[in-house]
Design a protein that fits this description.
FAD/NAD(P)-binding domain; about 35% helix; globular; six-stranded mixed sheet; 2 domains; alpha/beta; binds flavin-adenine dinucleotide; D-Amino Acid Oxidase, Chain A, domain 2
Length: about 400
């Protein structure tokens, strides 16, 4: 019998009702573990279904142990994008360096996973969809906490009461706003914005990434397989977040077109494809840093509580590990207050260490000045002669998953 089997229907959790907001990475992972521990789980997602798409994401270090314990590691290994080459181009489009991707991303070949974001979200959803209630195309409207639970009204009109509410609704979390106030108080803008979208692979790219840089601007084509589409990615430096563009895809397209006006290589074709893309994902490159992740009967997990930004490559991994830690802490402690406290106590150092990795990779991928770009290029040309990274436990492995002991 595996350890997980012994946890099913843990007495401490049985019958306690939990509402999770968000069905992407953190939400379904949390639902899976809470269900295993005997909680009665409902997940509300504002989209009409589990959303596909998005740029490929990494699952590394401790997070690999989470998906292994969930039984979905083999499926994710099958979905692994075995990227063969990362080519950097000069501003005029000529090749500057072509390297093994692991030399730049810090991933460990043969162990770490890179999968389509939708493939991970789909695998997590399938692992739990038959066991918990999913409410799609709906969201929390109001939350009212009291001694015995949280009264929730939903956008589509229903009202229900839950023992706990957990926000897994991403960087711009509505749950966080309801509980802790406006995003500005927790938002650490890192100086970049990006647009991701798919376009036709007319470039002959197969399992490889090509990256064009000019100071403060980067254009990336990312072929995850040998299929007909390729991921396009346009990243640019900007002093202030473009608040006016957040809710307006047309304004986002205009902004990106303006910033990349006059750029060389394949950028004009990418801008044309961006105009017609139906899967545009535009956002700021930001972190969320909060002094506390819970208040009363409500807590946050994943990007909602501690988005690290894609510059760290750890967003999905922190979401997976955070979900495991939150669910286990709630099941193991005497009540939700102790559970939330244990979750923070045992997870925060890992989160902070990974969030602090920002700045170590972005200078290499997105230099903002001509001088920084030249330094980056010099570094890339000498990559083959650089010493291997120092030994030791890397940040994404810095937490060893506990075996939660359940209270009877
Ligand atoms: C469609 C999509 C595409 C993405 N593409 C990229 C990408 O290209 N690059 C990148 O770096 N990161 C991307 N991300 C973010 C990345 O998935 C996360 O950084 C990381 O996986 C952490 O996951 P999370 O579950 O905490 O948050 P997220 O993955 O952001 O998931 C949050 C979920 O909550 C839902 N939600 C939001 N508000 C509400 C609400 N009020 N009520 C109910 N549900 C709500 C969202 O629809 C989403 O399903 C994308 C996310 C999504 C949803």
């Amino acid at each position: 019998m595996t350890r997980v089997d012994t946890l099913v229907n843990a007495p401490a959790a049985r019958g306690r009702t939990v509402l999770i907001s968000g069905a992407s990475i953190a939400g379904p992972a949390l639902a899976y573990w809470l269900n295993r521990y005997g909680f009665m789980v409902t997940v509300v997602e504002k989209a009409g279904t589990v959303r596909d798409g998005g740029y490929p994401i990494d699952v590394r270090g401790t997070a690999l142990d989470v998906v292994r314990r969930m039984g979905i590691l083999p499926r994710l290994r099958d979905a692994h994008i075995d990227l063969r080459r990362l080519t950097f181009l000069d501003e005029d489009g000529s090749e500057m360096a072509s390297v093994d991707p692991h030399a730049v991303t810090g991933g460990v070949a043969g162990r770490d996973l890179e999968v389509r974001r939708g493939a991970l979200a789909g695998a997590l959803h399938e692992a739990v969809r038959d066991d918990v209630e999913f409410l799609f195309d709906d969201s929390i409207d109001t939350l009212d906490q009291h001694r015995h639970g949280v009264d929730v009204t939903f956008r589509r009109g229903a009202s229900r009461t839950f023992d706990l509410v957990l926000g897994a609704d991403g960087l711009h979390s509505h749950t966080r706003a309801l509980l802790f106030g406006p995003e500005e108080g927790f938002h650490r803008y890192l100086g970049y914005c990006f647009a991701g979208f798919t376009l036709r692979n007319t470039f002959g790219l197969v399992r490889e990434t090509t990256m064009w840089n000019a100071p403060g601007r980067a254009a990336v084509l990312y072929a995850v397989g040998d299929d007909e589409d390729v991921h396009g990615f346009l990243n640019f430096a900007r002093t202030e977040p473009p608040f006016g563009a957040f809710r307006d895809p047309e304004a986002q397209r205009d902004l990106v077109a303006e910033v990349f006006d006059g750029a060389g290589w394949e950028v004009p074709g990418m801008l044309a494809a961006l105009r017609d893309a139906d899967d545009l994902f535009f956002d700021v490159v930001s972190q969320i840093r909060m002094p506390r992740w819970s208040s009363g009967r409500v807590a946050l997990v994943g990007d909602a509580a501690y988005a690290p930004s894609f510059l760290t490559g750890q967003g999905s991994s922190l979401a997976l590990v955070g979900a495991y830690m939150l669910a286990g802490s709630l099941a193991a402690e005497r009540d939700h207050a102790a559970g939330f406290a244990a979750y923070e106590r045992d997870t925060r150092a890992f989160v902070t260490l990974n969030q602090d990795q920002v700045g170590k990779g972005d200078a290499a991928l997105f230099p903002t000045t001509a001088r920084a770009l030249e330094q980056r290029n010099t570094m890339l040309r000498s990559l083959g002669s650089m010493p291997p990274p120092a030994e030791g436990r890397p940040p994404h492995e810095a937490l060893v998953l506990p075996e939660f002991r359940l209270r009877g």
